[in-house]
TrEMBL record:
One Gene Ontology CC term in the entry: ribosome
Family statement: Belongs to the universal ribosomal protein uL10 family.
Presence of the UniProt keyword Transmembrane in the record: no
Superkingdom: Bacteria
SUPFAM superfamilies named among the record's database cross-references: Ribosomal protein L10-like (SSF160369)
Protein name as it appears in the record: Large ribosomal subunit protein uL10
Length: 177
């Protein structure tokens, strides 16, 4: 690979990393070609892009970003590395990895590290936590639901109270007759 090709790849990769708030670095080495193709297919179906890069190119692309990714250098960027670009949902790649592991009875791919809104997660032990993360839209929906709940309770109490009051008046008027 020539220097110009490397420079082009680094520029494209750093642009992708800037555009994506969520990316995962995984090790899928040791999987057969059929298993890798199956994994790529599952990623494609969920809207995830999976690309394999050299560690030095990933490291140089990460250095161009504002966030400090130095913790990735010692542990994450060793051995084979592929990047999963998540798009809108930060938990989708973790779910795909877990689903792929269950379907193939394999411990691969291994999560080496992830960046979720510039928060770094290093190690495969974070896979369960990452798969349970809620998207921004889900969190906003929950907050709106919680804010609306007290208002709905007050309105329903007022409505039921008016029906109770109307029933009470009707009963009293019937008794007097």
């Amino acid at each position: 690979m020539t220097r110009e090709e490397k420079t082009t790849i680094i520029a494209e990769l750093s642009e992708k990393l800037k555009d994506n708030n969520y990316f995962y670095i995984a090790d899928a080495s040791g999987l057969t070609v059929a298993e890798i193709n199956d994994f790529r297919r599952k990623c494609f179906e969920k809207g995830i892009e999976y690309r394999v890069y050299k560690n030095t190119l990933i490291q140089k692309a990460l250095e161009t970003l504002d966030t400090d990714y130095a913790p990735f250098n010692d542990t994450v960027l060793k051995g084979a590395s592929g990047i999963l670009f998540a798009g809108e949902n930060g938990n989708t790649p973790a779910k795909v990895i877990k689903e792929f592991r269950k379907s193939g009875n394999s411990a691969k791919p291994i999560l080496k590290g992830a960046s979720i809104d510039t928060d770094l997660f290093i190690g495969d032990e974070h896979l369960d936590t990452l798969s349970k993360l809620k998207s921004k839209a889900e969190l906003i929906g929950e907050v709106i639901g919680l804010l609306q709940s007290p208002a709905k309770n007050v309105v329903s109490a007022l409505q039921s109270g008016s029906q109770t009051l109307a029933g009470l008046l009707k009963t009293l008027s019937e008794r007097e007759v």
